[in-house]
C-alpha cells in the first residue's frame, strides 16, 4: 500500500478549521490511508486538553481520519524540537510516506532544514534559557527569520527531525490562511459562556456541553499539594527543573490562591510562560528525566481509534515487530506507566476511566 499520509494534532478542541484541513489533504493528495498522531490528555503549551483523548479521537475519525495514534504525554508536553522528535519517531514506526502540516508560507522545508542543520551542527539548545528566544535569535543571526510564524517553525522542526533521524518521509504542506477558526478563541468563549456554534461541528458542540471539560483551575489544589509536600531535593529531580526553580516554587506556592496567580509570581524574563506551564505538568505528574529518556529509547504505538481503512492498515503493521497497543493489560500497564499516571490525575476531577477497559473507537468495523 502506498500513499500513507500522517499529521500531528492536538485538536484542543476539534473545530471547523481541523475539518477543513482534513478535507483539503484528501482533496489535494488523495491518501490511501490518513493517520493522525494526536496529543493525549495534556497539550504542548502545558495545559490539560479540554476534552479527553477519546472524545477527540471520535471527532477525528468521524471527520475523515483513518487511524488515530496517541502522542504520549512525555512527547506532547515538550518544546517544539523535542515535540517534533517524538512525533517523527512514531510516524516513522507507522511507516508513513508523507508528513502533512499547515504553514503560513510555502517554502522548501527540507532544503531549509538542511541549511539550518549545517549551521547548527555545534548548537545545542540550552533548556535552562528561554528556548524560543534562544532559537529564533540564533536563526535570525544566520539570515533565517521564523519568528511569529508558529506553524512554519514547527514544520521546520519536523523537517530537521526527518533529517536527523534519517527517515524516508516526504513533506507535504497545506497553506494556512487567516480565518475565523481558532482553538484559542473557542477556549476563551467556553470560559465566557459565549456561543461557539459557528466554530465547531455540531457533534463537538454537544461534547463540549455534555462531557467533562477541564483546565488548570480544576487541578491547582493538587499541584499545590505536590509542591508543599515535596522537599527541595525531591523537586530537583523533576524533569527540566533547573537553576533553583524548586526554591521559587516553594516560596510562592503558599501565597498563591489560583494557578494563574502562581504563574504570574514565578514567571521571569528567562522563562516563557509555556516553558513554566510545561514544568508544572512535570511537577504535578512527578516526571523524572529517566522516564522521558526511556520513552524516547522505547517508543510504542497506542491505538485510539480507526475506521475500516485504518483497521486494514493496522493488520499490515501487526506483521512488523512494533510495540502496538490496543488495550491495557498487565504488560501494557508497565509500558504506559507515565501515561496512566497522567490519566489518573485527570480522573480526579472527571471521574472517567481513561485506560483500563477502554478500547479503540471503531467506525464501521464489524
From TrEMBL:
PANTHER family: TRNA(MET) CYTIDINE ACETATE LIGASE (PTHR37825:SF1). Belongs to the TmcAL family. Keywords: ATP-binding, Cytoplasm, Ligase, Nucleotide-binding, RNA-binding, tRNA processing, tRNA-binding. The gene is tmcAL. One of its GO terms (biological process) is tRNA modification. It catalyses: cytidine(34) in elongator tRNA(Met) + acetate + ATP = N(4)-acetylcytidine(34) in elongator tRNA(Met) + AMP + diphosphate. InterPro entries: Rossmann-like_a/b/a_fold, tRNA(Met)_cyd_acetate_ligase. It is an enzyme of class 6 (ligase). It comes from the Bacteria. It comes from Companilactobacillus nuruki. The keyword Thylakoid does not apply. This is tRNA(Met) cytidine acetate ligase.
Amino acid at each position: 500500500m502506498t500513499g500513507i499520509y500522517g499529521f500531528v494534532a492536538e485538536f484542543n478542541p476539534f473545530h471547523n478549521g481541523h475539518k477543513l484541513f482534513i478535507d483539503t489533504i484528501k482533496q489535494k493528495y488523495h491518501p490511501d490511508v490518513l493517520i493522525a498522531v494526536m496529543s493525549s490528555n495534556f497539550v504542548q503549551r502545558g495545559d490539560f486538553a479540554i476534552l479527553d483523548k477519546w472524545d477527540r479521537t471520535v471527532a477525528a475519525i468521524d471527520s475523515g481520519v483513518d487511524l488515530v495514534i496517541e502522542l504520549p504525554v512525555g512527547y506532547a508536553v515538550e518544546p517544539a524540537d523535542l515535540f517534533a522528535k517524538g512525533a517523527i519517531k512514531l510516524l516513522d514506526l507507522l511507516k508513513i510516506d508523507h508528513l502533512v502540516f499547515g504553514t503560513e508560507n510555502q517554502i522548501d522545508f527540507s532544503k531549509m532544514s538542511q541549511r539550518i542543520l549545517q549551521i547548527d551542527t555545534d548548537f545545542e539548545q540550552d533548556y535552562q534559557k528561554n528556548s524560543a528566544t534562544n532559537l529564533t535569535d540564533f536563526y535570525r543571526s544566520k539570515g533565517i527569520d521564523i519568528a511569529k510564524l508558529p506553524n512554519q517553525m514547527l514544520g521546520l522542526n519536523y523537517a530537521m527531525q526527518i533529517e536527523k533521524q534519517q527517515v524516508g518521509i516526504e513533506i507535504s504542506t497545506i497553506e494556512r490562511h487567516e480565518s475565523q477558526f481558532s482553538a484559542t478563541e473557542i477556549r476563551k468563549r467556553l470560559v465566557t459562556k459565549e456561543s461557539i456554534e459557528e466554530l465547531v461541528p455540531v457533534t463537538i458542540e454537544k461534547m463540549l456541553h455534555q462531557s467533562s471539560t477541564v483546565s488548570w483551575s480544576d487541578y491547582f489544589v493538587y499541584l499545590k499539594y505536590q509542591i508543599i509536600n515535596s522537599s527541595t531535593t525531591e523537586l530537583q529531580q523533576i524533569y527540566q527543573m533547573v537553576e533553583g526553580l524548586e526554591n521559587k516554587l516553594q516560596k510562592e506556592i503558599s501565597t498563591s490562591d489560583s494557578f494563574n496567580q502562581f504563574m504570574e509570581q514565578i514567571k521571569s524574563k528567562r522563562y516563557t510562560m509555556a516553558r513554566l506551564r510545561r514544568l508544572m505538568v512535570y511537577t504535578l505528574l512527578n516526571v523524572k528525566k529517566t522516564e522521558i529518556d526511556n520513552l524516547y529509547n522505547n517508543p510504542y504505538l497506542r491505538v485510539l481509534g480507526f475506521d475500516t481503512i485504518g483497521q486494514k492498515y493496522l493488520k499490515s503493521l501487526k506483521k512488523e515487530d512494533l510495540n502496538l497497543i490496543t488495550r491495557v493489560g498487565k504488560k501494557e500497564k508497565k509500558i504506559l506507566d507515565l501515561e496512566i499516571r497522567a490519566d489518573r490525575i485527570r480522573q480526579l476531577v472527571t471521574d472517567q476511566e481513561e485506560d483500563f477497559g477502554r478500547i479503540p473507537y471503531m467506525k464501521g468495523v464489524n
